[in-house]
Automatic annotation (TrEMBL):
Residues 1-369 form the FMN hydroxy acid dehydrogenase domain. This is L-lactate dehydrogenase (cytochrome). It is found in: Mitochondrion intermembrane space. Homotetramer. The keyword Heme applies. It comes from Anthostomella pinea.
Amino acid sequence: PPMESLLNLHEIEELARRRISERAWAYYYSSSDDTYSKSFNNAVYRDILLRPRVFVDCMRCDSSTTLLNHKVGVPIYVSPAAMARLAHPDGEAGIARACARFGAMQIVSNNASLTPEQIVADAPQGQVFGWQLYVQNDRAKSEAMLARINQMSDRFKFICLTLDAPVPGKRELDEKQSFKNAVKVAAGVATGNESSRPGGGGVGQQLFWGTAADLTWKVTLPWLAQHTNLPIVVKGIQTHEDAYLAAKYAPQVKAVILSNHGGRALDTAPPAVHTLLEIRRYCPEVFERVEVWVDGGIKRGTDVVKALCLGAKAVGIGRPALFGLGAGGQAGVERTLEILKAETETCMRLLGVEKVSDLGMRHINTRKVERD
Ligand code: FNR
């Protein structure tokens, strides 16, 4: 079907499910244990009510913003997610070309299925990329990758250090597939992870082979600073305590991403909305010291707007980008971004808000969520 006939992210996901291999679907869709966190991620947005103001001129609407002082077309970015070519040969480069059309930022996974050079090859001036790092046990491998990314600092504007998955969660849907459809995971073209551990486990477990589980604020941050001058964004913060700690490392740490890894790490870990509310309550100064980005469960423009109202500067999409790719390659990702952007702007208009910086707590009612 033509991509225009797909009206929302649910329809794109459904088409992707039919188009991509059972193996790819299991890897992308899966989350840990009983998949509670994945369900919370989306359900929590339903429980936040919007408070529209009416009789307001809403002819104009501008959903552009700035992230780390770079201008971006939308407050929506593509989260780092491994192995995009399992969905479509366009892979991460197709995602990059789609992002270019909307001025959207993209964070490239440590376990991408194309090299960073290939991914940014067609990017126009000013398109913003981040590179996500899983520190490897063999630190020399990570140091070599950092050196390579430093060389491309006209493209890669920050390093995103993922902290919430020192070990992979137990993703049963993914693990189950391995007994039916064993694949040799040829990921990490870049990282050299292709000689992953022999057999067994899901794609997730194979990709994590070699990833370090001994990272700490005190040792790993200084090590990282020795190997890059790029700003650092830490991903996977799930408590106000850790958000506060991360903000103490400003200005070296410039942003934090509140995320439970799409429910793929610790099951029953909180959705980003809960962490946003905790930070507002216990250490609101975090918002002044670092940018706060969130991801997990974003399906609608209203979800995007609610996160922004709570203080997030940007909202990431993981699976929706992969499903867009699965549904129609680059064109499918373009349609995904087009829908989310249009829904976000419609939501802003119906709220009576012209620009992103005007969104705030007065536009939402969080009573139902705060009761938890
Ligand atoms: C991820 N995620 C992830 N995160 C990361 O830091 N490095 C990675 O390589 C990956 N890989 C990855 C693969 C797949 C298939 C998924 C679904 C997710 C997590 C990702 O960045 C993000 O936190 C979640 O996907 C956000 O949730 P949604 O949008 O998928 O609900």
